[in-house]
Amino acid sequence: MTRSTTGPAATDPLPSPKERRRLREARELSERQVAAAVGVTAATVRAWETGRASPRGRRRAAYSRLIGCAEPRTAPSRPAEENGSGTMSTVGPDALPAPDAPTPDGPTTDRPAPDGTTLATPAPGGAGPVPQPGSLTAEEAYDDLYGRTAPGLTRQVFLLTGHRGLALEAVEHGFRIAWQRWPEVATDRDPAGWVRAASYEYAMSPWHRLRRSHRRTDPLPEDPARRALLDAILGLPPSYRRTLLLHDGVGLGLPETAAETEASTHAAACRLLNARAAVAELLPAPAGAADPGTGPAPLREPLAALSLAEEVPAPPAAPVVRARGERVAELWTRAALYFGVVLIGATAFTLHTAPTHYEEPLAPAERVGGVPPLGGPEKLTPQDLKLQKALKGELAHGPERLVPHIP
Fold first, then answer.
1. Which residues, in sequence order, are CB contacts of 316 under 8 Å at separation 6+?
2. For residue 269, which of 3, 66, 99, 308 is within the disulfide window of CB 3.0 to 4.6 Å?
3. Where is this region: Disordered (predicted)?
4. CB proximity list for 29: less than 8 A, separation 6 or greater
C-alpha cells in the first residue's frame, strides 16, 4: 500500500482521473493546450481524465509534469469526515469567486469560521493521529477509514436525499464497492472522496423513484428554521444540490467540486451561485443574507447546524460491511460463472445439432401444363337410350346369373 519513491517518475502512479482534471483546471489549462504540449489529441486527454485510458512512457512523464502531480506538493488538510468529525466539514472560502476568475493552483486549504471557531464537532474520544497505511493491514486500514468517514458521510447523504434509510444504504454501498476495489482506493490520493463520490452517485440514482418507500422524503424537522432550510435544499435540482453540499458543506474548493460533479469550473460556480440564491430566497436572515459585493452568503453554518441536529441511524460495523461486500462479490462471481456455463452449453448444443454439410434447398413448385383434365362418363346418346330401353323391356333367357343388370 506504500508508494515507492526510488523508481523513475514515469512509473509513479498517476492520480485518479477526476484528480487529473482538477489539477489541469487549477492551472487554467484547456484540453487542447495539454494535448498540444504532450503531442496527442484533445480526445486522448479527455480519455485520460475519464479513466478510459492512461498515458504511458514519455507522454506520461510530460503529462504528469504539466498538470503538476510530479512536483512535490504539501498534503492538503483532510476534510471533516476524514479527520474524525462526526459531521460534515463547515470550512471553505468566505466568498465565491466569479465564474471567470482564475482559481488557485492546487487544492484549497480549510479555513476556520469567521468567529475563529470550528463548526465541526469531533468524534467521541477525539480523532487522534491518522495511522500510516504502511503499518496497517488491508482490513485495519479499511476499518480505520470506515470509522472516520462513515458517520459524517451518512449525514451528508441524508441532506442530499432527505431519506435516512437511503443515506444508510448509499454509504454502505459505497464502502462495499471500496472494499471490492480496495487496492485502487488505498492508493488514491483521497480515499474518503472516492467513497463519497460512489455513495453520492448511488443515492442520486433516478431509479430510486420507482421504489415505493423512496417516493416521499422523511418527515421534515419540527424546528421552522431547519425545516425551511432542508425543504429549500431538497427543492433544488440534483446537480445544484450536490454542488452546494460539496462546496459549502464538505468544504471542497471549486476545482475539486467541479471534478467530482464532472463539470467545468465555470459550470460548478454558476450552479453554486444559483443554488445559494434559490436557498436564500426561502430562508430568513441571517441564514439567507446576501452580500451585495459577493452575492449570496455561503451556507456553511446552517448546513452544519442542520446536520448536527438531525437524528441519523448509525452505520453498521466495518466488519459487517466487509462481509456483505464479499458476499455480494461472491454472488456476482457465481452468477457470471453460471451464465458462462449456460452460454458454453448452448454453443455446444448448437454445434452438435447444426448440419455438418451444405444441403441444397428444394426448388420452388412450378405449374404443370399440357395435361388434359380428368373427365367422367360421357352423356348417353339417343341410340344408347333406345338400346337401354329395349334391353329393359325384353325378357331374359338363360341362367339368372347371366342376366345383365341394367340400372
1. 172
2. 99
3. 1-32, 67-137
4. 66, 67
CA–CA separation, 84 and 227 (whole Å): 27
Contacts of 82 by beta carbon, 8 Å cutoff, 6+ apart: 145, 148, 149, 192
Q: Return the bridge partners of 291, or none.
A: 295
Secondary structure class of 374 (helix, strand, coil): coil
Q: Do 89 and 303 contact (CB within 8 A), yes or no?
A: no
pLDDT above 90 coverage of the chain, percent: 10
| Triad 323, 329, 331: Cα angle to 5° | 105
Task: Give me the pLDDT at residue 97, please.
Answer: 45
* pLDDT > 80? residue 363: yes
Instruction: Please write the tens of the pLDDT for every residue from 240-274.
Output: 989 998 988 888 888 888 888 888 889 889 999 99
Stretch 34-40: mean pLDDT, rounded?
84
Task: Give the SS3 label for residue 391.
Answer: helix
Among 62-76, 87-101, 119-133, 381-395, which range has the highest average pLDDT? 381-395
Between CA 274 and CA 236 the distance in angstroms is 9
Q: How far apart are the C-alpha atoms of 253 and 23, rounded to whole Å?
A: 12
User: Rounded to an integer, what distance in angstroms lies between the CA atom of residue 373 and that of residue 398?
Assistant: 42
Assigned CATH topology for domain 7-74: 434 Repressor (Amino-terminal Domain) (1.10.260)
- Provide DSSP, 109-164: PP---TTS---SPBPTT---PPPPGGGS-HHHHHHHHHHHHHHHHHHHHHHHHS-H
For CA atoms 370, 371, 375, 380, the dihedral sign is positive
**Number of residues that make up the chain:** 407
Kindly report, as residue ranges, where domains of CATH 1.10.260.40 are found in the chain.
7-74
- Of residues 292 and 367, the one with the higher pLDDT is 367
- CA 238 to chain centroid, in Å, comes to 14
Max CA pair span of the chain: 149
Q: CA-CA distance, 32 to 38, in Å (whole number)?
A: 10
Q: Is the pLDDT of residue 318 over 90?
A: no
Residue 342 predicted with pLDDT over 90: yes
Nearest to 199 by CA among 249, 233, 242: 242
How many Cβ atoms are within 10 Å of 46's Cβ, its own excluded?
15
